Automatic annotation (TrEMBL):
The lineage of its organism: Bacteria, Pseudomonadati, Pseudomonadota, Betaproteobacteria, Rhodocyclales. Pathway: Cofactor biosynthesis; ubiquinone biosynthesis. GO terms for biological process: ubiquinone biosynthetic process. This is Ubiquinone biosynthesis accessory factor UbiT. Keywords: Ubiquinone biosynthesis. It comes from Thauera humireducens. InterPro entries: SCP2_sterol-bd_dom, SCP2_sterol-bd_dom_sf, UbiT. Signal peptide: none annotated. Required for O(2)-independent ubiquinone (coenzyme Q) biosynthesis. Likely functions as an accessory factor. Residues 76-165 form the SCP2 domain. HAMAP family: UbiT. Belongs to the UbiT family.
Length: 181
């Protein structure tokens, strides 16, 4: 049987900054520079409701975001040791538990096994995850103040932390806001 020809790679979607006019992109960039996340906690009744909802939709959003970042700002070769491991992200004040894994094709939702704990559990509040993502806080500060917790395989935890530390966030911010640096 003859081999089928390889399918061409799909084009990457444009970054949000590429879709915005220059002046709007500049104004958004200025606001991002001065953005500070206020202290807040998701109200307990909301967290109780969210914890009862299916966790697949928010997990799909997380894996989509991670896959968009993969190879752009998250180096696949550096993350290779995560492949096949069950990772879990717990958003403590929102009642979310997101189970995912890295495969050859990228990040995917993982089905938690009842008889086995995840290989790595990363826990924090919504506010602290947002501060981490926006680089308002660094992982070490959150970790040593016990606002970011990692349980399980410490080598995987260090890999995640070091990968976050290695991302050139200033270059990414410049790219997203359309500024060349």
């Amino acid at each position: 049987m003859p081999a089928l020809p390889a399918l061409p790679a799909l084009p990457r979607p444009p970054l949000p900054a590429d879709l915005l006019p220059g002046s709007l992109r500049r104004r958004i960039g200025e606001r991002l520079e001065n953005l500070r996340i206020p202290d807040f906690t998701v109200p307990a009744p909301v967290a109780k409701l969210v914890s009862r909802l299916p966790q697949q939709p928010p997990t799909q959003v997380l894996t989509l975001a991670l896959n968009l970042a993969l190879d752009r700002i998250l180096p696949r070769d550096t993350l290779a040791p995560l492949t096949g491991h069950h990772l879990q992200m717990r958003v403590l004040d929102a009642g979310l538990t997101l189970d995912f894994t890295l495969t050859e094709k990228g990040f995917r939702r993982a089905t938690p096994a009842a008889d086995r704990k995840p290989d790595l559990i990363i826990s924090a509040t919504t506010r602290d995850f947002m501060a981490l993502a926006l680089r308002e806080e660094d992982p070490d500060t959150l970790f040593f103040s016990r606002r970011l917790r990692m349980e399980g395989d410490t080598d995987l935890g260090l890999l995640v932390k070091n990968t976050l530390d290695a991302v050139d966030w200033d270059a990414l911010k410049a790219r997203l806001t359309g500024r060349r640096g």
